[in-house]
Design goal:
The chain has about 230 residues and is mostly helical. Helix content is about 65%, strand content about 5%. Helix 4 packs across helix 6 (about 130-145), helix 5 runs antiparallel to helix 8 and helix 8 (about 180-190) packs antiparallel against helix 9. The structure holds zinc ion (ZN).
Length: about 230
């Protein structure tokens, strides 16, 4: 996760924020879970000051909600926010997929293919959280190949928020970022077919949103300590 405030250094609050973000991405900490400064500091062996800075950074990225006098909680995107996030992705990502298809090199294609392989390996290892994070990374990689830095930043934040939305509203676990959708996208990129890449991405994002049940949030589970144990 990115932040403008670098005063605490990359080994400090940024590292804490990254570890928390990873645990959120991989669904080890559930939406709505309280992130106690003391407990997080104790688990990671860092000061409360660092934890506080990390939580502020995550709040800036909308992964965490800071509540006055109550502390920090993993964000719980509303149904409206969930729709907005995916609508924004459906606006931005087909265009970046088109640009990526026009620019992708052999090395880019190899990297994306490796990404898909890692995702399959994570699923085979019984680690759907990691697979989900990797599938989000696939989308960020495409934006990076498109070489549009501002869009890549937006998409990175939207993908992170999508991860929370998926944790809350996931209906058909296997339907998300189905590998055949990523394979088909990769093929369009490999062929340098911008129009097809654009259509594929649009269809893929529509499939994603239809696989979410935007009515019934899933209940939270697991203790913070358990969730962060391997972060
Ligand atoms: Zn996908």
């Amino acid at each position: 996760m990115t932040s403008d405030s670098a005063q605490t250094g990359s080994g400090g609050s940024d590292a804490v924020a990254s570890r928390l973000a990873l645990a959120i991405h991989e669904h080890r900490i559930q939406p709505g879970a309280k992130l106690s400064e003391d407990e997080v500091g104790e688990i990671f062996g860092v000061s409360r000051t660092l934890v506080r800075a990390a939580l502020q950074q995550l709040a800036h990225d909308r992964l965490v909600t800071l509540k006055r006098n109550r502390g920090a909680f993993v964000a719980q995107p509303s149904v409206r926010e969930a729709r907005e996030v995916f609508e924004a992705r459906a606006l931005l990502e087909p265009r970046t997929a088109r640009s990526a298809a026009e620019r992708a090199t052999g090395a880019d294609i190899t990297r994306l293919q490796r990404h898909i392989d890692e995702e399959h390996a994570a699923l085979a290892d019984g680690d759907p959280g990691r697979a989900l994070r990797l599938s989000g990374q696939f989308h960020i990689e495409i934006a990076a190949i498109a070489d549009q830095e501002t869009l890549r930043e937006f998409i990175t934040q939207l993908v992170a928020r999508s991860s929370l939305i998926i944790a809350l509203y996931w209906q058909r676990r296997t339907a998300l970022c189905e590998s055949h959708a990523h394979h088909a996208l990769l093929k369009a990129l490999e062929d340098g077919d911008g129009s097809r890449a654009e259509e594929m991405m649009k269809g893929h994002l529509l499939d994603l949103i239809s696989s979410l049940d935007l009515r019934n949030p899933a209940p939270p589970a697991r203790s913070l300590r358990e969730a962060l144990a391997r972060a």
